[in-house]
Design goal:
The chain has about 190 residues and is an alpha/beta fold. About 30% of the residues lie in helices and about 25% in strands. It has a single domain, classed as Maf protein (Alpha-Beta Complex). Bound molecules: inosinic acid.
């Protein structure tokens, strides 16, 4: 069976991929290969970070690997927070409540609420790299709603719905989400190699 590392320790992301690829690929997490490195994510683009993470695993551990990076791009903020989405608010980063609070504050006087989530997945194949992109268009609300999901989900309404991502079931979100769309492209590709 072909072995492939997914450069994450997020159990939800891993479970999802394993359910789909489990029959043909042994998908391993970073913990599974004993990688506890703080992999640098300092590139100026989502694509650059996804490629850097996948390459890191290939170069240091020898396994082919795929890695993802996601950003929320808000038109009225010239594409911010974008590649800095995890650490938009000052502090350690990954503080979703602080990130959302800052986003809503910066959007207070904006009538253009258009935004999109973008995910890039990079896959190493020996020395080569292939990338897959998924986009979900939508809008930023004026206040948070819903308890599901994570990150900016309570303030993002996907196009064609009037509920936030945090008000959708996991299956409803996956069907239209940036990550869901990029993952489908990766899976279709892997099924044919
Ligand atoms: P990552 O590249 O998946 O780690 O995502 C970077 C940051 O984007 C996260 O820390 C979250 O703040 C945000 N983010 C990524 N995916 C989502 C999502 O599906 N919903 C809401 N926020 C997300």
């Amino acid at each position: 069976m072909r072995q492939l590392v997914f450069a994450t320790n997020n159990s939800h992301k891993l479970e999802e991929i394993r359910r789909i690829l489990g029959e043909s690929f042994a998908v391993m997490s970073l913990a599974d290969i004993n990688c506890h490195d703080d992999i640098p994510e300092n590139e100026p683009t989502l694509e650059g970070n996804a490629i850097a993470k996948a390459r890191w695993v290939k170069e240091h551990y020898g396994y082919d690997c795929f890695a993802d990076d996601t950003g929320l791009e808000v038109d009225a903020l010239d594409g911010a927070p974008g590649v800095h989405s995890a650490r938009y608010a000052p502090g350690e980063g990954h503080d979703s409540a602080a990130n959302m609070k800052l986003l809503l504050k910066n959007m207070e006087d904006k009538s253009d609420r258009k935004a999109r989530f973008r995910t890039v997945i990079a896959l190493t194949e020996g020395d080569r790299i292939k990338t897959f992109e998924g986009v979900c268009e939508g809008a930023i609300t004026t206040s948070p709603a819903g308890n599901g999901g994570f990150g900016y989900d309570p303030v993002f309404v996907p196009e064609g719905d009037d509920r936030t991502f945090a008000q959708l079931s996991a299956d409803e979100k996956n069907a239209v989400s940036h990550r869901g769309r990029a993952t489908v492209k990766l899976i279709n590709y892997l099924r044919n190699v």
